[in-house]
Write a structure and sequence with these properties.
The protein has 874 residues and is mainly beta. The strands form 8 sheets. It has a 22-stranded antiparallel β-barrel. The protein has a 5-stranded mixed β-sheet with strand order 8-13-14-11-12. The protein has a 4-stranded antiparallel β-sheet with strand order 3-2-5-6, with no helix packed on it. A hairpin with a 4-residue loop joins strand 26 and strand 27. It is globular, with a radius of gyration of 28 Å. The two termini are 24 Å apart.
């Protein structure tokens, strides 16, 4: 790996030596440096943006290079390329704001003029001053309606963080790369965590060093983009700049664990002399595990008649001296009985590319994508020696280790062409995700003393291939502007489960994670065809209406039509009203339809084997579980944007999303509401080798309502700026009282079919309130950023078998300082969660006998994280 990065570094440096660098500073009429100004080489799409000091640097092998400087709010200016240039831009009447690409057909629409709410996260800038190194973590700390927290002891979900937008599920937000649909992971979250029973998109598989910015469309957009866009759309725009940038970050938690190292290289250069470019990114990230448990509750009981010391996890502080004496007498240490509970260890290696090659004056070939190779180690529940799991191998008990190997590949390839006034775009997007499981430091009881202690447990894959044909144009001559778009999409998906080695699944399987057996194997596929049309008409400069419609047909459940209407009206040049209404849908994923396995569940405090069964299985038919169908939604939003002054902007948006036939992952069926076994069910389940069963079904209707507030204020300074921002989201989700399609055998057992735990995960496991207040000062070569984040209260119920608990709201503080050592090199140091704030400790009944001190809610369980970052750019 070190040789790979050395090769990339040397190769890019040699390439740069053949190019000429142009650099300088951009200021306004008052000599104030301007940040975020677009600097593009004329006749190409190659360029960069100015930093917070107004500085820029761009390279070219062209002769007589002309640089074009532009930004909303300023007149475009051209300048012959040179060194140490000083560019003075004149203000124009346009609103100073970012141009938006997602959710609109107007090539100059800004985020203050869109008919629906859009956030823009400038990743290439923000990642220089933030502790976070992944897109998931950056969004969680910068977009209040976005939530993501790492999960513990949750099988594969430890290795792919589930995320939500506006309190909805990970599978109810659509992710795009450069405007093209991104594939989901093959992992189905099935361990009673955030997003239980859903399949999300792995944002951490995209290197943050490759990202220029992220657009978050906070409104239902299924009529424009298709399935999954119920909560909104996240559009990730990759870098296209030239030059070389190298960054490295080191960090560690206040507990001395979670050690993190990140190294990234981004290099861009021109291709030919017609505006082509290639931008390459390599990134390596290594994150150590953390442990946040309560080992002081461990009690060791002397069982001298058996000649063993048995570990029990019941709180008994008064027995501590006796415990230590017993441990010493046995020649053991407390570490022999420790639980590991916290973040999994993750190692991530990523390569990404973004390129465009003009083929003529009107045509351009483009491609983007890359690969991600990830390995991880997480921990299952500890097996105590009193439980008798092959004591000859592990006389003191053991804690299994779940090992993951994840391969994620993607490639977008397409051709853009100008057909008269129309833009033609034909593309193919292919994505593949493979998740392999290994389980070590464990045994299979059925194999006795001959049991291996590690197993290949099998895995799953997901393949998605999408073909898009799009036509669009924007005509300034019709009224005040007419945007038209229409097109078609064909999508193919394939999902597989493959078996592990025999020892991982025979008998009751490997402890903690029984491997996939041949009976679990799946190889299923489906296809869909979609047709859409979108019309955006500016009746006047002040009044805009956007109407969109989409028809889709799926090979596995049929057809659906959705529509959306959105409008924007300028009350004044400074105040804009906006609103939208639309219907949407989400097709059941192949994973939800066909995932099946035998896993170890925690039921009433006992570890037992439970099964997840396909909806088309014989047991599902016997119990009357209905086949899955699509979720449908209706959403409405109403908002206001205000440009109070050139440097003070406000947006306020209220919304409501109603979802019918929402897919749930049922509770563990086999017992009644009191935990007693139901004989009729047990007779059906016992031949299958399980004590409980779970299914996916369209069981509930939900209603989500909330409000988003964004306020930005900028104070220009002689050598920089002082920026204030306040971001706030309030969000509530309610599940309707009546369940849908409950099979007759479960009538009267609805609290098991969809119990308190499952309901809590949907209604109250994300903070209802989240606010982010940031003060960002840049002055000459120095910069300081102070961010306070309020994470609202969370209620958890029935985790894993205990009672309801309210986790109070918490306030965390991030503080960073940066210094530009010279024009190319910068240093940033700081702390995330400076004051080491953690969620409320769990009540004993929810903590697995005191082991899980903290739940993975709100800001997570990492605590304070200190980091330093060096960044070099030419």
């Amino acid at each position: 790996m070190k040789h790979l990065f050395l090769f990339l570094f040397l190769s890019t440096t040699l390439c740069l030596s053949a190019q000429k660098a142009y650099n300088g500073k951009v200021v306004d009429m008052k000599n104030i440096p301007l940040e975020g100004i677009s600097v593009v080489i004329e006749g190409t799409s190659i360029g960069t943006t100015t930093n917070n000091e107004g500085d820029f640097s761009v390279s070219s092998n062209h002769q007589n290079t002309i640089l074009v400087f532009s930004a909303l709010g300023f007149k475009t200016q051209k300048q012959q390329g040179g060194s140490n240039l000083k560019i003075i831009l004149q203000e124009s009447s346009e609103i100073l704001s970012e141009v938006v690409l997602v959710g609109t057909r107007n090539p100059r629409q800004t985020k203050l003029e869109t008919p629906v709410a859009v956030d823009i996260v400038n990743v290439s800038k923000i990642k220089l001053t933030s502790a976070q190194t992944t897109a998931n973590d950056l969004l969680a700390n910068l977009v209040p309606s976005f939530n993501s927290s790492r999960q513990s002891s949750s099988d594969g979900t430890e290795h792919v963080d589930p995320a939500s937008l506006r309190g909805l599920g990970p599978d109810q937000v659509l992710v795009l790369i450069n405007g093209k649909r991104r594939h989901t992971t093959s992992l189905l979250n099935n361990q009673n965590t955030v997003g239980n029973g859903s399949v999300g998109t792995d944002l951490s598989s995209i290197p943050s060093a490759a990202i220029d910015r992220i657009e978050v469309l906070r409104d239902g957009a299924a009529a424009q983009y298709g399935s999954d866009a119920i909560a909104g759309v996240i559009n990730i725009i990759l870098k296209k700049n030239t030059g070389l940038e190298i960054g490295t970050t080191y960090g560690v938690t206040s507990e001395g664990d979670g050690e993190t190292f990140n190294f990234n290289v981004n290099y861009g250069t021109e291709i030919g002399k017609k505006g082509g470019f290639i931008n390459l990114t390599a990134e390596f990230n290594d994150r150590g595990k953390t442990s946040r448990t309560q080992n002081h509750n461990l009690v060791i009981y002397d069982q001298s008649d058996l000649g063993n010391f048995f570990a029990y996890d019941f709180s008994n502080d008064g027995a501590r001296e006796r415990d230590n004496a017993l441990i010493d007498a046995a020649g053991l240490t407390r570490d022999d009985f420790n639980f590991q509970v916290g973040d999994a260890a993750i190692t991530n290696t990523q390569l990404f590319v973004n390129l465009e090659i003009p083929t003529s004056e009107k045509g351009t070939f483009y491609a983007a994508g890359g690969g991600n190779y990830r390995t991880g180690n997480g921990f299952g529940f500890r097996r105590l020696p009193s439980e008798g799991h092959v004591l000859e191998i592990f006389p003191n008990g053991f804690q299994p280790i779940l090992e993951s190997t994840i391969v994620d590949l993607s490639l977008i390839a397409g051709y853009k062409y100008k057909l008269g006034e129309w833009d033609f775009d034909l593309s193919n997007t292919n994505g593949y995700n493979q998740f392999d499981y290994g389980i070590s430091n464990t045994v299979n009881d059925a194999l006795g003393i001959n049991s291996p202690t590690s197993f290949d447990a099998g895995g799953h894959t997901f393949l998605q291939n999408t073909v898009n044909l799009d036509f669009s144009r924007f005509n300034d001559d019709i009224m005040s502007g007419l945007g038209l778009a229409f097109g078609a999409e064909y999508r193919y998906e394939n999902y597989t489960i493959y078996a592990g080695e025999e020892g991982s699944y025979i008998g009751n399987g490997a402890n903690s994670f029984p491997g996939f057996a041949p009976t679990n194997e799946v190889d299923e596929q489906r296809s869909s065809v979609g047709i859409y049309a979108d019309v955006e008409l500016n009746f006047t400069d002040n009044f805009l209406v956007d109407v969109a419609g989409r028809f889709e047909n799926y090979s596995d459940f049929g057809s659906i039509i959705n529509g959306k209407i959105a409008a924007r009206y300028k009350l004044t040049e400074a105040v804009v009203l906006r609103g939208a209404f639309g219907t949407g849908f989400r097709a059941p994923s192949l994973q939800q339809q066909y995932f099946n396995n035998i896993a170890t569940d925690l039921v009433d405090g006992n570890l037992i084997n439970g099964g997840t069964f396909r909806n088309d299985s014989e047991i599902a038919k016997t119990l009357g579980i209905p086949e899955l169908k699509e979720e449908t939604s209706a959403s409405i939003s109403l908002g206001l944007t205000a440009k109070v002054t050139n440097n003070f902007q406000i947006t306020l948006d209220a919304y409501k999303v109603a979802i019918d036939d929402r897919i749930i992952y049922t509770g563990s069926l086999g017992n009644d509401v009191y935990g007693d076994e139901i004989p009729a069910l047990q007779d059906i389940l016992k031949p299958l080798g399980v004590s409980s069963a779970r299914f996916f079904t369209n069981a509930i209707n939900t209603s989500t309502a909330g409000v988003d507030l964004v306020m930005n204020y900028k104070v220009p300074l002689d050598q920089g700026a002082l920026n204030f921002s306040l971001l706030y989201n309030h969000n509530e989700t309610e599940v309707a009282d009546a369940l849908n399609n409950v099979p007759e055998i479960f009538v009267g057992q609805e609290d098991v079919y969809f119990g308190a735990q499952e309901k809590s995960l949907i209604e109250s496991n994300n903070p209802q309130d989240k606010a982010i207040f940031t003060v960002d000062l840049t002055q000459d070569k120095f910069g300081v950023m102070l961010r306070n984040t309020y994470w609202g209260e969370v209620t958890r119920n029935g985790f894993p078998f205990g009672g309801a608990q309210l986790h109070a709201g918490k306030l965390t503080t991030d503080l960073t300082g940066s210094y530009n050592i010279n024009d190319n090199l910068s240093l940033t140091v700081g702390a995330n969660n400076l004051f080491d704030v953690l969620p409320d400790a769990q009540i004993y009944d929810n903590s697995y006998f005191g082991v899980f001190k903290y739940a993975s809610v709100q800001m997570g369980t990492t605590g304070a994280f200190y980091f330093a970052r060096l960044n070099y750019k030419i």
